[in-house]
Structure prediction request, 265 residues.
Amino acid sequence: GETTSIPSAWGIDTTNVQKFAPEKPTLIARKIAGQRVISGEGVEDAIVPMLPAIRNAIIRDIASGEEKAIIDGQRTSTIDTGDAPGTNDVRYAWDGIRWYVEQYTGAKVDANGTITGTMLVSALRKAMGEYGMDDTRLVHIPSANAYLDMLGIDDVRTVGEMGPAATMVRGQLAQVGSAPIVPSRYVRTDLNASGIYDGVIETKTINILVHRGGWIIGDRRKVTIEAQRWPLDDAWQLVGMERVSFANLFGTSHNMAAVLFDITS
Prediction:
């Protein structure tokens, strides 16, 4: 087994030493797939080659499904009781970031309708405990609505304010301190005041603060694309598929994410 203790023979006083090691996450690969069907005439009459364009569209679909499952995945149990995901829903692939926060850590901050700089700079990070200290390891993932609200906060710096020398990662539109803001269209804007979708109150949204080192993605099979021609129907079918897993690396007792909830959409 993996050793997480120090032998007493070493003569080291371990009384006040915290024994810490990442848990051994179980990575169970799930299939995420997408497909497109195009007629033979469509392939022949297109100004540009269609099959490469469709291939790229399928890859984008799979990446979008992966993003949605990372944020909203609910495999073990349901938190959004208003629309529990079925077995063919991409959210059923694994337990996502919101699920961990709701199910285990409770690292949540109530916005009471409006985002403030204090919530972004200190309150959310405080909810994460030691994992919120280094903002270079953090990333804000708001909904589109929450992101637009953030733009009016003094502590939020946009690209223009950071200057042309700023190094912008893909998807980053602004930052708080050293923590980038990367909005996602899969962060829901139809939640209730507790940050849950119940199908009744659908006027709230959230911002998720994530410690980037606390999560792991495992690729069992990279995205593969296969084309099949159906001559009887004069059609092409393109199918893309990957097998991938996602897990909390350090287990359920560590606040690797925090949620700012009750933001008016």
Q: What stands out?
A: The chain has six helices and ten strands. The longest strand covers residues 215-230. Helices lie at 40-45, 50-72, 97-105, 117-127, 144-150, 159-162.
